[in-house]
Amino acid sequence: MAGLRTGICQPAPLQAEEAGLLLRALSDPIRLQVIEALGSGERCVCDLTGELRLAQSKLSFHLKVLRETGLLADRQSGRWVYYRLQPEALERLRAWLAVLASGCTAPAEPCC
């Protein structure tokens, strides 16, 4: 069975509705800043409030939106909450965009 990679599960293809939810979550400038800040790895919410210069309540709202769409995961350690990107969600969005990009240059069929 050449070409098959065993032991690796491919995520389900992203549907347009789910892509829309992810893109809406990413459309806010503050949420984009959060995504970029987490691009280098897991961060404590206390670090994010300082770096992004946001009140904790405002940041918490944006973190909740990103977490609910599956773009972020969190874990609690003591009284601190740590957030990290979910690479699977980003990969699914990237793959969905790649499919669009691969077909967007096809010429139109001639009109009758």
CATH topology: Arc Repressor Mutant, subunit A
Strand pairing plus helix content: what structural class? alpha+beta
Number of helices: 5
The overall strand count is 3
Proportion of residues in helical segments: 40-55%
What is the CATH architecture assignment? Orthogonal Bundle
What best-fitting shape do the alpha-carbon axes yield?
elongated
Mean pLDDT: 89
Strand content: 5-15%
CATH class: Mainly Alpha
Q: What name goes with the CATH superfamily?
A: Winged helix-like DNA-binding domain superfamily/Winged helix DNA-binding domain
Largest sheet composition: 3 strands, antiparallel
Give the N-terminus to C-terminus distance in angstroms: 46 Å
The number of domains is 1
What's the SSE pattern?
HHEHHEEH
Q: How are the strands ordered across the major sheet?
A: 1-3-2
Q: Which blocks of ≥5 consecutive residues have pLDDT under 50?
A: 1-6
The value of Rg in angstroms is 18 Å
